[in-house]
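cache lookup: miss for this entity combination. No prior model stored, computing from scratch. Input as submitted by user K.M.:
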Amino acid sequence: NGPALAASKKIGGSVSIWAEWTSTEQQDFKAVLQPFEDSTGITVHYTGKGSNMDTALDAAVAGGSPPAVALVPDPGTLDTLAAKHAIKPLASIIGSESKNYGTAWSALATYKKKLYGIWFKAANKNTVYYNPAVFKAAGISSAPTSWSQLLTDETTIANGGTYAPVSLCTDIGWPVADLFQNLFLKLNGATAYDQLATHKMKWSSSAVTNTFAEMAQLTGASGANLLGGMKGALADGSWPNCTTSVFPASGSPTAAMVFEADFLTSNVPSNYTPGNGSSCTLSAKASPCYDTFNFPAPTGSAYAADIQGSGDVAMLLTSTRQSKALIKYLASPSAASIWANLGGFVTPNKKVALGSYPDSVSKADARALTSAKAFVFSLDDLQVGWEPALWADMLNVLQNPSASNVTTVEALMDTQATAALGH
Amino acid sequence: MTIDAPVKENRVGGLAKRLHLSKAVVNVILALVAIFWLVPTISLLVISLRPESLFGVSGWWKVFTDPSQLTFGNYSTIFSQGFATGGVLDSLLTSLEITIPATLLVTMISCLAAYSLVFGSWRGRDMIFFGIVGLMVVPLQVALIPVVQLYREMGNLFGLNPYGTIPGVIIFHVAFGLPFGIFLMRNFLTGIPRDLLEAGRIEGAGEWKIFYRIVLPLALPAIASLAIFQFIWVWNDLLVALVFLGGNVHSPLTIFLYDQTRSLAANYWIVSTGAVVSIFVPLIVFFSFQRYFVRGVLAGAVK
Amino acid sequence: MSSVTLRELTKQYAGNAALSLDAVNLDVAHGEFVCLVGPSGCGKTTALRMIAGLESVTSGDIEIGDRVVNDLSPRDRDIALVFQSYALYPHMTVFDNMSFGLKLRKVPKDEIKAAVTDAARILDLELYLDRKPAQLSGGQRQRVALGRAIVRNPAAFLMDEPLSNLDAKLRVQTRAEIARLHHRLGATMIYVTHDQVEAMTMADRIAVINLGKLEQVGSPRELYDRPANQFVAGFIGSPSMNFVPMHVESIDGGIRVVSAGGDMDVILDDVESAIIRSAGVSDVVLGVRPEHIDSQPRSGRGLQLRASVEVIEFLGNDEHVHLSSGSHELVAIVDARTPLTIGDSVTLSASIEAIHLFHPETGVTLK
Amino acid sequence: MSSVTLRELTKQYAGNAALSLDAVNLDVAHGEFVCLVGPSGCGKTTALRMIAGLESVTSGDIEIGDRVVNDLSPRDRDIALVFQSYALYPHMTVFDNMSFGLKLRKVPKDEIKAAVTDAARILDLELYLDRKPAQLSGGQRQRVALGRAIVRNPAAFLMDEPLSNLDAKLRVQTRAEIARLHHRLGATMIYVTHDQVEAMTMADRIAVINLGKLEQVGSPRELYDRPANQFVAGFIGSPSMNFVPMHVESIDGGIRVVSAGGDMDVILDDVESAIIRSAGVSDVVLGVRPEHIDSQPRSGRGLQLRASVEVIEFLGNDEHVHLSSGSHELVAIVDARTPLTIGDSVTLSASIEAIHLFHPETGVTLK
Amino acid sequence: MTSVTAEGLKVGAPRASRQHGWWRRNWVSIAFIAPGIIWLLAIVVYPTIATVRFSFYNESATKFVGLHNFASVFSTDTILTAFKNNVVWVLIFPFFVTFIGLMVAVLTERIRWATAFKAIIVMPIVFSTTASALVWRTIFDLDPHVGVVNAIEQTVSDWFSTPGAYPLNSAIGQTAVSLASFNTTGAPGGALASKSAVQPGGTVMMGLTRISSATLQTLGAKTPVAPQTIAGGIAGVVWNDFSPSQTSNTTTIVSDEHGLPNLRLSLVNSTGSSVASTVTNSSGDFSFSHVAPGSYHVEVPASNFQTSFVGTFWLGSQSITPASGLNQTAQSLLSVPLIDLAMIISYIWIWAGFAMVLIGAGLAALNREVLEAAEIDGATEWQTLRRVTIPMLAPVLTVVFVTMVINVLKVFDIILNMAPGSSQGPATTLALSIYNDGFTGGIHSGVASAIAVILFLLVVPVMFWNLRKLKGGSA
Ligand SMILES: Nc1ncnc2c1ncn2[C@@H]1O[C@H](COP(=O)(O)OP(=O)(O)OP(=O)(O)O)[C@@H](O)[C@H]1O
Ligand SMILES: Nc1ncnc2c1ncn2[C@@H]1O[C@H](COP(=O)(O)OP(=O)(O)OP(=O)(O)O)[C@@H](O)[C@H]1O
Ligand SMILES: [Mg+2]
Ligand SMILES: [Mg+2]
């Protein structure tokens, strides 16, 4: 495969690596590892830990037998482990491969000025997925590019009477938080976003209040724009149910679009083709399509290219010849390209050619990521200690966006943030 | 025969009928309960037999009008890996490797401890028992990390770190099964007449003999229940195995099923399939222990 | 085959203010057969259980052989106990119940089989060896409990009413077997019973307990003839001794005791009179056993007694005649052929030897 | 207060090939006191449990009053049962144990209290009303079980050896109380006992069961004097009747029966001889009760018996003398003052009225 | 001196021997309990102590913060909610599980198919909670096409009220609304009326939107035509004023728009009373003839939009106790979300088998004769059960009850898996808070440990009660 591998000679031995990925993602990642194993003779033991990754890793570190390499989904863990000296600095190990990442990403993998991780996989949470055929049925031919256009299109689709404009993922609130974060970023920019994330900006500030107000526009009065109304959104909005109403595996869609990150791709049934061609139909049986657009900013906003996202950062926990080789391999563009090629994957690795992505949707996604003016990490994940409370608060506002309730909840959030973050 | 019939007719009047009726009522009530209990179970089974695409789209009961919806697709997905390491059968074995020792140990240690608590004469029995019941409430989650650290200390001290090994998982399960086990056995053993133990003692049985020749046989119904539950709990555990097995290549069935689901949410059709697959062993366990629930185990023992 | 000695043995159960056993002293010699008798709840079972090591000793000592065994576990005491409640192992067959102790001692299989078969034959249990206790009748259960003790060969047997649920015939038979066993093994036996006949026929000595206290120990004849006090006198013998409060009257040099209504009177001789005088009492309790009352008046010294017949209980050869004399109730045993009918006024008598006199307050025997 | 009738009542327990009750017919009249006696395991408890409704009927019928109650639940039969195993409620105090049945009937509180206090006084349980069964002695438990029955006022009482664990005195006392209760309430009573004295003194009629079969029903005197067969003869009376196989010899017109060694013989009169002849037997079993054996030889007709004294059991007033006559063992009850010593050769006798003769195979009474 | 020594010996000797005796008497008992105690000390007690310690430290266990964590537990509404939910669970769940378990265990003793029945009841324990939660989630699903409960409710409710021709489209949660040019009176789904008044001889154009194409298809809607005036009458058309080809045109009828057939209309005079009514035909046109002079409105009564039953949101957080209008804290303490009930029902379904098996085991050991004695004493079956069986079963019932109390104090998996995200907040419990606070995204201690400690303390009374009860029960 890549020339980077051809150079390395057979090392042999084995190395263990943990990540969240199970099921399809696990198979994809194993495909990424295959050429590495072939060329180095190293056997890689991969374990997918799912949502218990953090706990399992904490335990493994505490238990004294951590995996050699681990990929975790949040920068906080990296900081914690670095503080405990449980992970190794990477600069000298991966050498020039560290330059494959933009400064925003490197900063997120740096602790006390040392690089401890490489962001192997990234997710763009600005992505909005929509069913082009539904848009067309309402007489809309192109995706909205501004916030006001999005609202207009929503009304149009609603008036059509057959499809709900939005299938809102609610779950325990994290998708709503994502939605809020998107909107906040597009309305107020990355600087304000970072201030809010660290609670330097108050939740009771007008920026937040405005964002909530705009969000209420999006959902419509008592959830008029949402699939099943507010009640339906809350009842059926659990992940990934919310996606199947836009991209059903059989029958017809009931909603036009769904907000979530690009990892939603893996929940789109395989018979959907990416793009917005003229052949797209409403029936899941004939040729259905999916497409995305970037979460729109108000017309003329300076923050249109700011991106909110997340990712998986690879860290080295035990330093052996094999593990070093593996992390270096993960940092290389050839590793990321393999998965990119398989789809449902984007990497912040600049060296991965856009051509590696199989379709227009992921290409656009990757382009957005790499061309981002500013990149912010998902804000809720940084709210250690009150993240679930934040999600609950988001659901609260979603259900009752009245000014008085917003004021109450904002005050509550400030209290919670102060209690958890100490300021 | 013909002469007998009218006599029989007269003598019991409506009373026998009333008795029969009450028996019928019991049967009807229990049948209703059984149906109530079965509906979810059947729906789980049906969900596992319907294709993924229909989940959440239409009611599972539709299969009864449209049997063409039935498919073994979910099962073939699960069984696709076969016997290989990481396959479903390998996981089944691993589950047994964990569950059987954990069940045996909990049952044995609980019985021993309960015996001591009930029939021992040392002071402070009540306090110890009190403490043990208190431990039932300790959420398993809070113990994970301290125990892992403890394992590492063991590794440092004795060169044997159970972390990442199957014994490590078993040790943890046993510890968290014990409070309930002891609680159950103790309360059950209080029902065994002391005279029986004393008879054994007089006949020259040591405590051990009394324990396993007299008390254990009499406590079989309780032991069977404890074993059933312990087995089921360990069998269905996911969290402990995930945390304690580390990178072990063999993983129990729960982890295997968990792996079939995607990282951000459960694939319910696979979960249901897995649930159906994973209940067979516990059901066998249940049925084989069922026969120990004999009525009147203590009948005829004392006046 | 050891002696058993109780020294000031006392037991107080938790949650029971009264002493269930109160400073009991008792020596049971090696090979001796002692019966414990006493009213229900007097502490017989408690005593056995303490000797067996099943109850802790509140104070005092228990010696078996010449060791103080207070702290010895039951199985180290080498005794067999037949429980009043049987305490059969419900999960074992009769055979297993009986052989359990032997198995524990690793006695060879065929010896066990022989011993159990033997005991089963004696106890008429051969047909039931495969049954579980739940499938047995009350008497059969009791016999299994007994069998469990006798298949072993312990230093001492403790038996708590081992025959109470057996019918008369079987009881006589089993009693004989126990006596034979006792002779054959020379084993020490402490035997609780409420059956007079058992106690009288089997025991070398009888210990009478009342309210946890030992009242008297002695041979059956001693207890029957010379009870130490009114309690023992009343307890030994069935139907029990008749007691009548009498007034002491001095008559020319001697003493005459007479009942309130004057329906009964006895004239004492000099020796007896002296004893009564030295006791300094003006009242005594007269005791006479039902079987010592003659249905005929008698000439000469002795009890004279005028009464009316109230109830006659037929008992085959004998009759129990319930009498009313003045305000007193008495029972007499007379030959069934004596022509008595209810309502008869009769004069009865008893010889002076058959008369007991007790201190009216302490109950101590005066004559 | 109803009659109880058993018609061909049969019981076979699952897992037990033998019939525990075999076509028993018994009429217990309203207010009658019937004692069931029989060897251990003969089916007494089974019969009571079936009458109470606790065991299913294998075949036959049970009538209480004039209803067939085979299928009636125990609750609806209005009977009280004293269990052989007591079956006290372990979680209730003595008071609650006794008052439970009344509470269920919603008897006013003070009436309950009065009834229980009364029963407790009769049964000497006043001190224990607050205890739980586990803290009682065996006899106390039995009294609680008895108390539980007598506080109620049922149509019939069923009592299974209710006095077996009581001492002699208490037993006599309680016996009297039960008799009084029976008279006062006029209640029908079916009473299982193995105590001869109880059966003889209390019962209007006694039913003798053997191996599940009813052998004879009759008044105590009937059973004692005219047992229907050898089994009943042996079962009623304690110590039981002596049986000796005899040979029938014709002597000038009459018949003489004589034992194998010739140590015993009886000459029969014409009537008796005729019966024996018509039975056409050459052997008979002779029966004579121990209490009917005279320690003196007698002139005239009757049993003459030469024997040697083997064992003497002292019983207070009487002695049980175990005799050996030829190859036969006999027991005689003699006055304790009779001067006998072990090894003595003696000649004893019994009057011709005291002699019973039984068919050697069927056991049916011939004389 | 010597005599004192002798005295001392005399007193001392037995005591020494007593102690020696203690060990001799008890060493086996001690040996029996030792494995359990050691195991528990190492694997449960040690972490428990760690937990207690962590509860006084900050989240990363680096700084001692005193009672801060406890203070924040009691001042956080979410945790108060969790407390309240725990209380609701504890009050309802253990009782019902024990009760049902007991009833079922007692009743099964009388049936022939007991084994099969027991297997059915036990089966749910055998499933993982994830699977059970999934099943119950579908059973309670809001959509009557998916959820059995709502399907039943719908069937029942449809007996009582018939839906209109244009019911709420449950798939998208909408109902017809008029366009701005045709005034709306009332909420969406309420009655709609023409905006401008009309006189006899005039015409009315009423454009509505948000009508599902599926409905139109079912009703066989045809292309509408502009209404013709009729003398002394009022004519008009009602149509679905939405065209994908001309989304902005809201004033005229476009070719791909459809009339709304089968609509019930009424003519309302100026005083607001209805004077005539009619039904639109397949192109959506209608007419009222012989209308008295005056000014009228044409109204589309709400009954047209009468929806069929929309389902009870069993998994929702609406309170079943009156708690609205209270402040946040009071609400978190007083409202009982409906989903609590749904989950409790499911949890009972899961655990009743546990109770049944244990109680069955207890029943097996009861002395039958005592029960017979009760029967003889005249107790009905119910009385026997209540006054004899249950007290005698007390130790086992206590096990079940206490286990269930502790179980629900720790309940979280069913909530995590069954509650839709939106209800997880209102339905949260202490253990779920521990899980969320202390467990997601790595392990934090602090508040989570404090909650655990509080949980632990909550059990203390239960233990006391249990101990007292057992002591009283057996001797
Ligand atoms: N549950 C049972 N199963 C089988 N056989 C039984 C059962 N109960 C009793 N039997 C048998 O039935 C016969 C009659 O028993 P029952 O208890 O009626 O005797 P009983 O006359 O009361 O004897 P006892 O005087 O010893 O109490 C006995 O041989 C006994 O072994
Ligand atoms: N566990 C106990 N707790 C409290 N008191 C008890 C206990 N066991 C027995 N007692 C009491 O101690 C006294 C003696 O009891 P014990 O059992 O020794 O009597 P007993 O002589 O065997 O009587 P019985 O002939 O009725 O069996 C009784 O009054 C009894 O109530
Ligand atoms: Mg006793
Ligand atoms: Mg019996």
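stored under new cache key. Chain E has a mean pLDDT of 79.
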